[in-house]
Amino acid sequence: MTEDGLSPLDDYPVHQIPEVMRHVGTSDRNFYDRYYFNAFPLTGDAMLIVGVAQYPNLGVTDAFALLRYKTLHRVVRASRELGADRMNTRVGPFRVTVIEGLKRLNVTLDPNEHGLSFDLTWDGSMPAQVEPRHFIRWQERVMFDSRRLAQTGRWTGSITADDDVFNVTPDQWWGIRDRSWGIRPVGESEPPGIQSKNTGTFYWLYAPVQFEDHSILCIVQEDHLGRRVLEEAVRVPGFGSGGEPEYLGRPEYHPVYADGTRDVVAATISFAPPGGKPFDLGVTPLLPVHLMVGTGYGLEPDWKHGMYQGPDLVVQGVSYDIAKPEDNARMWGLVDAAARFAYDGHTGYGLFEYFALGDHPSFR
């Protein structure tokens, strides 16, 4: 780094504010910039989730990989000081390489002592879509103010877990990726102040789905009264089709819960395209993955996204066997499930992400 804070990214004509590129346009400590990927076979018996993020105002970058396979819930995670070069996406054994922007990327976790590694190349199946801005002000504080791009795609490469090696081919391994950036709670816990008055409601559905020649992206978030905070419903043709995204109207979400729980065992998402034919999208979750366990989303007090782990690189491994009652009891919070989706003769596969925290009309 030079004395005035320059980095290699400053040599590109991408500046948005009168600052060097390593400084963002807000002083909010919670600004983040993240990659998210998932990969799963169409059989739905395994799922890999990977995240790599930078927190410019905290001076930290970190990464995680979570593999759910058989009864295994394994996480490898790493953290280091961010430094000046925000084009450096390596975090210890993790690395993201953009081969062709918005189309092709490589994601790797080098062999390590924690028994999980991979070398995977992503090829997008549809043009990346920018989702609606996510904005939530709670008890006077802006808690969320972010944008995200989403894309369906397919994977090539390999995954190694202990003695098991997965041969990843694009005909069988599909997935979803996103890039999000902006403000949301990260890092060490802050004094709660008035935020402790009420934890609020987080009622959430995120369902990006890939079919053979198109994709559907759906988001539903509602507050404690059932009012929409965020929504999206769009059908996107695949690369090379020449078609335009189609707005599908207001999506309606109808989950079926296991008795006495908020675990979704099936769901229907209803769409009514303006001027078009209404249709129901049936959802069959294949493999639930508890994204928040071990990865930094807030459950572990000693490892949260953006938390400073010290001046040296830190790499850790965490494994749980959900066949054990004490480990299964840890599986709580946001669920990222590999799922099968069907409507009007089309069968697709994608992410079924849901969370139902707090009060909501569907539980009254």
Task: Put the structure in a nutshell.
The chain has 364 residues and is mainly beta. It has one helix at residues 325-328, and strands at residues 31-41, 46-55, 60-69, 72-81, 94-100, 104-109, 116-124, 129-130, 134-138, 141-161, 164-168, 173-183, 202-210, 214-222, 228-237, 246-247, 252-257, 264-271, 279-290, 314-321, 335-343, 346-357.
Principal-axis shape: globular
Report the biggest beta sheet as strand number plus sense, adding barrel if it closes.
13 strands, antiparallel
Low-confidence stretches: none
- Beta fraction of the residues? over 45%
Number of strands: 22
Helix content percent band: under 10%
Q: What's the architecture of the largest domain, going by CATH?
A: Beta Barrel
What's the CATH H-level superfamily name of the largest domain?
A: AttH-like domain
Structural class: mainly beta
Textual characterization of the structure:
The chain is mostly beta strands and 364 residues long. The chain folds into 2 domains: 1-188 and 292-324, AttH-like fold, CATH 2.40.370.10; 198-288 and 333-364, AttH-like domain (AttH-like fold, Beta Barrel), CATH 2.40.370. Helices cover 1% and strands 53% of the residues. Strands 1, 2, 3, 4, 5, 6, 7, 8, 9, 10, 11, 12 and 20 form a 13-stranded antiparallel β-sheet that branches. Strands 16-15-14-13-22-21-19-18-17 form a 9-stranded antiparallel β-sheet, with no helix packed on it. The mean pLDDT is 95.
